[in-house]
Amino acid sequence: MKTSEIIYTGELRTKATHLRSGEVIITDAPIDNQGKGASFSPTDLAATSLGSCMLTVLGIAAGGRNIDLGKIRVELLKVMAEAPRRISEIQVHLMFENDFDEDTKRVLEQIALNCPVAKSLHPDISQKVTFDYGIASHP
After folding, report:
1. Cα–Cα separations (whole angstroms), residue 39 to 28, 29, 134, 137
2. Which residue, of 34, 68, 85, 112, has the greatest Cβ tally within 10 A?
């Protein structure tokens, strides 16, 4: 089965539909690239996928290891370069509500750093990842 269908809706916007679930994502070009900035840009989604992937693999690994992850929050910054316009850096800050012993922290960090998206991004994209424990607050 195909993964998605994407339709250009005009005015630098797209509508992507996940075919299995029917969920929809709208993208819009960013303000600094002729868009309205009214939704995630395609490069925002690429960067955001890194943080989402890290959380997903952490959840999978924690379940298999009987680790209570508690709440985790990710703040992410995408940095763009010019000539050619591309993502040059993604800064990911993972904040865990729970604290863990040093061995568990090391395991969790290696799992996050080796998620499929991290391993799929071009090596020219700098991935700066930080981890903080015992601090996650959720709005």
Report:
1. 5, 8, 32, 25
2. 112
